Amino acid sequence: MLEVLELLSQLIEFETVNDPTNGKKPSKECPKFIRDILDSWGIESEIIEKDGYYAVYGELGEGTPKLMFLAHFDIVPVNIEEWRTDPFKLTIIGDKAYGRGSADDKGNVAGVMLALKELSTKKLNRKVIFAFTGDEEIGGKLAMHIAEKLREENKLPQYLINADGIGMNPIIRRRKGFGVIIEVPQQKILIKGKVMKKSFTINTPVLQTRHAAYFMPGVDMHPMIALSYFLRNSDNLAVKVEGKFLKSNVLPSKVELAYVEPDESGEEVEADLSLTELLKAIVPLVRASISAEKYSDFGISITPNLYSLENGVHKLRLDIRAMSYSPEQIEKVLREILEFNIPTAKLTVKHNEKAGYLFTSLDSELVRIMMKTLERLGEKAKPVEGAGASDSRYFTPYGVEAIDFGPRGGNIHGPNEYADVTSLKLLPKIYTHVAINLLKK
Prior knowledge:
The protein is of the alpha+beta class. It folds into 2 domains: 256 residues, Zn peptidases (Aminopeptidase); 174 residues, no CATH class. The strands form 5 sheets. It has a 6-stranded mixed β-sheet, sandwiched between helices. A hairpin with a 2-residue loop joins strand 14 and strand 15. Helix 3 crosses helix 10. It starts with a helix and ends with a helix. The model has no long low-confidence stretch (mean pLDDT 95).
């Protein structure tokens, strides 16, 4: 009998990295593996393709859709230098299962698959829909496509368990993500001085995650924010920035600044005024007074995680999380900051109009049944807010009641990601029991 750890081990060996900047995307191999395993259990499913990305979709039972399971098999890039184990081999040390995707989100994929296996042996009086997607880490267009298709076919479920959480607590709130691009053309000048270099290294003393949504000002040190503060408190001019830039929602682990320290007795060297202004603007940008529509324990988070120089244009990308639907207020506040600091900068605020945020009531039947199930299985849990966004945001605008859920673990998007073995083994039972009890109602 295939157990959750064995299945997870096989899933982790698929290097389903999503990194568009470097041309990496998951191949068809992992979704084909998922489909074939389900097929061996007598569960029919199909592979859906959208813009070169794949998802596995299927249905169990008869009648109108009551519940949907959703999880994703794609993962974020790895900075191999920071790992103590092979990120693409499941390594169990004590009660921790290490590997990229163990917590986010292949542990959940394995848990849901085994729950579906159990449910397929039951006579279900209502339909259970399931999907495993391969592009959640870059925006989740597959989940959006599936939600739209289900809506058009009048097959939207009443409830959604988005198996993309952490901590064995039902997540009932999650903010929406916005992407910001700030562009300024190079403006080189000659100045007398000395070219120096300074490195800034990330410091996350409490949680080793590199996920942008978990960044905690006052506790964590972001290399780009530290770099900005360094320039703002000196007369130095930037020359060049290099670093471990991986993804717009992944904090860079290290950044190196080449700069000119002005000195009239020094040699004539080249600096970049636009780059200097852009980097100095990071501090006020991440402190922007953005407001939200609903309360969030995490407030508003703004992190500068990607920088590039493309065709003579400096580009800085910010990751913003807020309990808000609209980008207009975000754009207004950021534009005011840029007009004061870099009037020539071009500002673009991106978001998905079809995506919302997760905000499910404590009185939801789904929340109550999940809490009762966890209590019966000996888990002390409480409904919480999750830091990052998830694909449930494509279903909630249509009135689907949703929760996100997942195993205990840590270092999501960071080095040495792990999931708690005990909680991984409980996942199939939790998902099975919740589904059966929901279908009884």
